Amino acid sequence: MxxxxxxxxxxxxxxxxxxxxRILARLEDKGLRLVGLKxxxxxxxxxxxxxxxxxxxxxxxxxxxFITSGPVVAxxxxxxxxxxxxxxxxxxxxxxxxxxxxxxxxxxxSRQMNLIHGSDGPDAAKREIELxxxxxxxxxxxxxxxxxxxxxxxx
Length: 155
Prior knowledge:
Blueprint: E1 3-10, H1 12-16, H2 20-30, E2 33-41, H3 44-50, H4 60-67, E3 71-80, H5 82-90, H6 103-107, E4 116-118, H7 122-132
């Protein structure tokens, strides 16, 4: 099994509520490594690229309005099966249906204002990371604690 990277967006609602640090800490506490991190504003053009499969759907205008409404924190995290690990940590899209212990279950009550985005698969992760980060903004570095997080044949 190889290490995987995935994109995380701490969405405007979480940034406004002061949850960025808690959300990122949960990812790091799990053992995922932050290899890219920046605060930014999603433009309508970037939103259309990110959510390309949804642009023609009736809910898209509200989605674009929300994701462009304030700053987001974009992060690229790395770890074994990072995509599925992050999706499990996030919980289901609707915070009212998310189990306690997940990010959305602990902090969310909404389907749209759902605090965090995580790529839904390895192909989406690659495409999304390239939308938000240049290669120079992503870092490879030794994680001294890796030997205590997972066995060498798991990375």
